[in-house]
Amino acid sequence: MNLLRRENFSSGAPLEEKAGYSRAVKVGNLVFVGGTTTTTPEGVVEAEGDAYLQTKIVLQKIEDALQKAAAKLSEVYRVRIYVTDITRAQEYIRAYSEFFKSIKPVITMAEVSALARPAHLVEIEAEAIIGTYVVENKR
């Protein structure tokens, strides 16, 4: 049996080691980026109260994690967005479109009752397949 190589990538957050999780995991040419928020390694929640800016910060952190795993945003095929207030969907989507408008991965946005910290408005996870690209958009 041939086993695929697994690589774990850390963001440097102290809780990753304490709890036992990785920011991203790469298995073969698949990259999985776990739920990402705006909490800094120092424990500060960035952009408190700003749904648009929190989304931008999270997506930048996801792009950084993908790059560590040798993946690109253009190789992302699935994004899941968890929000605490779905009525602010346009703010989240405005930031999201700045990263993914031309890539068009499948997306899920779901409202949840709470995230890890009360100041978190959004948490996002993404999946990518290294070596893929957009061929065409069909209707």
In short:
This protein has 139 residues and is an alpha+beta fold. The chain is built from 3 helices and 6 strands.
Task: Provide keyphrases for this structure.
single chain; 139 residues; alpha+beta; 60s Ribosomal Protein L30, Chain: A; six-stranded mixed sheet; 27% strand; globular
Percent in strands: 25-35%
Give the number of helices: 3
Cα radius of gyration in angstroms: 15 Å
Which shape, going by the Cα principal axes?
Answer: globular
Global mean pLDDT = 94
CATH architecture: 2-Layer Sandwich
Largest beta sheet, briefly? 6 strands, mixed
Strand ordering within the main sheet: 1-2-3-6-4-5
Helical proportion?
25-40%
CATH topology: 60s Ribosomal Protein L30, Chain: A
Order of helices and strands: EHEEHEHEE
CATH superfamily: RutC-like
Q: How far apart, in Å, are the first and last alpha carbons? A: 41 Å
Would you kindly provide a written description of the structure presented here, covering whatever features stand out?
By secondary structure, this protein is of the alpha+beta class. The chain has a single domain, classed as 60s Ribosomal Protein L30, Chain: A (2-Layer Sandwich), CATH 3.30.1330. Helix content is 27%, strand content 27%. It has a six-stranded mixed sheet with strand order 1-2-3-6-4-5, with helices on one face. Helix 2 runs parallel beside helix 3. The radius of gyration is 15 Å and the shape is globular. The termini are far apart.
